[in-house]
Specification:
It is a single chain. With 287 residues, the protein is of the alpha/beta class. Helix content is 44%, strand content 22%. The protein has eleven helices and eleven strands. Helix 2 packs across helix 3. The longest helix has 30 residues.
Length: 287
């Protein structure tokens, strides 16, 4: 790796190899490309750097002076690169991840904490957010990664499709013996806020939306919403992975195990020319 500009890289390659042809080989560009870069450098410096001879390219006095600059720059570059690479391994790194609380709790956090073994200085900032503002948080740099609905991914973003969250309809364990349609007709829906249509979308998929009451309870926190269900205030859709622990403890029941709604999601980040090892490990860990 070199931090030299392309024209200076071409100059340094010609000095080392002695010919434009050999310089083009190590740079991976055409001889014309090498010549153009040298000429561009000479125009910037308003001088001639090489004189062609039978023995190859010979430096002028001005070229010798530039060579000293390049050698000094390479020495400084070596020290700088060493510090940069050491910093990537020896410095505390904080990575922010924003997304729905259900998937962060059930899948993201459990899958990522194991990375601490290989990256002991890696620190996570998990932002459990059940609103559409996660895309804005990524755009403003509040987080490094976001879990978004697939249709929120834009062209300037990099993304990885991950397993969809499967949502089912849940009610309190005390409703275990009640009929499904009777519950829909008599009980209230609990959602995050008036703009949350997840439960309606679920019911609409199975042509059941016309059975339910339009008036709803609201709680913009997954734990609070779940608590309201457990205490019999109503029913709602919850991510199956998240709700599994409550079902196992006998606090929630699936109102109809055959009905489900898949919430298609992606892990999203802004492109990086070179991804650090910890960054690649995070992407690989989430499936």
């Amino acid at each position: 790796m070199s931090l030299l500009s392309p024209p200076l890289e071409a100059f340094w390659a010609v000095v080392r190899k002695g010919t434009v042809q050999d310089a083009s080989f190590i740079l991976g560009i055409t001889q014309t490309g090498v010549t153009q870069r040298i000429r561009s450098l000479e125009r910037q410096l308003k001088t001639t750097l090489f004189i062609r001879s039978r023995k190859g390219m010979r430096l002028t006095t001005e070229g010798e002076a530039l060579l000293q600059f390049v050698k000094s720059s390479l020495d400084i570059e070596g020290v700088a690169l060493s510090k940069i690479q050491r910093a990537a391994k020896d410095s505390i790194i904080e990575v922010g991840i924003s997304g729905p609380s259900s998937i962060l709790r059930s899948r993201v956090i459990p899958n990522l904490i194991g990375l601490k073994t290989n990256f002991p200085l890696l620190h996570f900032r998990f932002d459990l957010s059940d609103t559409e503002s996660n895309v804005d948080k990524l755009k403003t740099g509040f987080c490094d990664f976001a879990i978004l609905e697939h249709h929120h991914v834009t062209r300037e973003m990099d993304s990885k499709i991950i397993k969809a969250e499967r949502y089912l309809l849940y009610g309190p364990a005390s409703w275990k013996r009640r009929l499904f349609t009777e519950i829909l007709k008599t009980e209230s829906i609990i959602d995050f806020n008036p703009s949350d249509n997840m439960t309606f979308n679920f019911l609409d998929k199975y042509k059941l939306k016309n059975l339910v009451k339009k008036e709803r309870h609201f709680a913009n926190n997954t734990d609070a919403l779940t608590s309201m269900i457990i205490n019999g205030l109503g029913f709602s859709v919850l991510a199956e992975e998240y709700a599994a622990a409550f079902v196992k403890r006998g606090e929630l029941i699936k109102l109809n195990a055959d009905f489900f709604y898949d919430y298609k999601i992606a892990l999203v980040w802004y492109p990086r020319h070179e991804k650090p090892e910890y960054f690649q490990a995070i992407i690989k860990a989430l499936v």
